[in-house]
Design goal:
With 279 residues, the protein is an all-alpha fold. It contains 11 helices and no strands. The model has no long low-confidence stretch (mean pLDDT 80).
């Protein structure tokens, strides 16, 4: 502050300063009990004994295994991981699309006069409850169930992704359709068009870009999930990584981690490219 300058109160310099201070303190008050409940103690990472164990663990990863036969095995499991994600997403779409059309009111003929009929309303609420059930159970839990039912292998991973992602897609698809302009679809329904025609010509044209973008994003997420599901026996790169970890083969795990990071990077690039193309 220069000599002779008149002090300016914080409220005049920044009228929102009180609100920022209040919400910052409120966030700290809310986060503090959560950190205590979770026994969050990051300083234990720097205890000498922990550092020694960490150094030995990381040392087992170096150098990564790059033998041709092993790399071929990793490439095959990578392809299987992508296949699990893609097949799971295809089944998820078969689940999500009909449930979305059944749960959204934008295609409801009974809602055209104003208030939706009691029976259609109850049906839609039941479908929405089904979507809640599907997406509320993590794909890891579904995978554990299906491993018991169909045995170890990719089938359990495909079914797990299909059910969880079917619920997620159905929920978001419904929100996208409900947020769009209703006049085109309602005009078609009032003039005798069926629900499918109203969807194809009244709703889909204005929602196609957003629906496709979200679907591509979920496919990218499914690739990550398919690797995690392998740790419970659902096939793919995750299952091979789990086998190597159980055998204390750190070099193999390091190679698979590097390949998986490359795989996720490629999936992210492909997803971004597709979203730009459909934008």
């Amino acid at each position: 502050m220069t000599a002779g300058a008149v002090p300016v109160s914080p409220r005049l310099r920044d009228p929102a300063w009180a609100g920022r201070v209040f919400w910052t303190l409120a966030a700290l008050v809310l986060v503090a009990p959560v950190l205590v409940a979770t026994e969050f103690k990051p300083w234990t990472l720097f205890v000498p004994a922990t550092l020694k164990v960490t150094a030995r663990f990381v040392g087992d990863f170096l150098p990564p295994k790059i033998e041709a036969e092993f790399l071929w095995l990793v490439a095959r499991e990578c392809w299987r991981t992508v296949a699990i994600a893609t097949a799971g997403m295809a089944l998820a779409l078969l689940i999500a699309v009909p449930l979305t059309l059944a749960s959204t009111s934008v295609l409801s003929i009974s809602a055209l006069p104003g208030r939706m009929g009691a029976v259609p309303f109850a049906v839609r609420q039941g479908v929405r409850a089904l979507l809640v059930i599907l997406r509320s159970i993590p794909e890891l839990v579904w995978a554990l169930v299906f491993v018991r039912v169909v045995g170890l292998g990719p089938t359990a991973g495909v079914l797990a992704i299909a059910l969880t992602y079917g619920g997620m897609l159905g929920k978001v698809y419904g929100e996208i359709l409900e947020s769009d302009e209703r006049h085109p679809s309602q005009a078609l329904l009032r003039n005798g068009a069926g629900r499918l025609q109203a969807f194809l010509y009244g709703v889909l044209p204005q929602s196609a870009s957003e629906l496709t973008s979200y679907t591509v994003y979920r496919w990218e997420c499914a690739i990550r999930s398919s690797a995690v599901l392998g740790f419970v026996g659902a096939g793919g790169l995750g299952q091979q990584m789990d086998n190597s970890m159980k055998m204390f083969q750190g070099a193999e795990v390091a190679t698979m981690l590097l390949v998986f990071m490359l795989l996720v990077g490629l999936a992210d690039a492909a997803s971004a490219w597709l979203r730009r193309r459909i934008a």
